[in-house]
Amino acid sequence: ALLLAVLLWAPWRALHGAPLTELSGDQDFQLFLQRNLEFTRKIRGDVAALQRAVCDTLQLCKEDELLLVRQDLDMAQAPLEQCHRRSFQAETCFSQIRAGLRVYHGSLATIRALLPGHAGLVETLQLDMANLSSNIQQQMEDLGLATVTYPTENQDPLPTFSSHFHHQVGGFFILANFQRFLETAYRALRHLTSL
């Protein structure tokens, strides 16, 4: 599990040179945070439902039992260190959340292939992720922060697996890593509400 350092408030002063209270009292910003905390909670619930499906359907339930197999897999992990560093920066944290959503959005195709009966849930999840990403981009623009616009087509190659079993374990870890990513993103957004 990630050990999250206590998030510090200092970098907010860098936004437009605005004092902390000015931003934390901004009703639009607080509304953005509340709405997207709910959104992130919903996405986490959908990922948990897919994790249960992987457990029920593929009998892959315990991460510690799969760690040896994981070493053979080339698994991309989206970094979020900017969201739980002592030097927390909203701009870089938001950018990392968006970049990570893009990575996981593409890799969910692996899950759809493994669980064809849950394709609808995977598609809903991908739509929610795209909406969360665009909400964050919109908020960054509203705050005057630098944004990176990613191409709508997913440019990242999907992970390749040497066997069906590796494909299954890969799917397990995509969801496990995504769930940890979402927990960190959720904590970062929640931290911003308390500033």
Report on this structure.
With 195 residues, the chain is an all-alpha fold. The protein has one domain (26-63, 81-147, 157-193): Growth Hormone, Chain: A. Helix content is 64%, strand content 0%. The protein contains 6 helices and no strands. It has helices spanning 20-24, 27-58, 63-70, 90-114, 119-142, 164-193. The longest helix is centred in the first third of the chain and has 32 residues, at 27-58.
Write the layout of secondary structure elements.
Blueprint: H1 20-24, H2 27-58, H3 63-70, H4 90-114, H5 119-142, H6 164-193
Keywords for this structure?
195 residues; mainly alpha; Growth Hormone, Chain: A; 64% helix; disordered N terminus
Brief overview, please?
This protein has 195 residues and is mainly alpha-helical. It has helices at residues 20-24, 27-58, 63-70, 90-114, 119-142, 164-193.
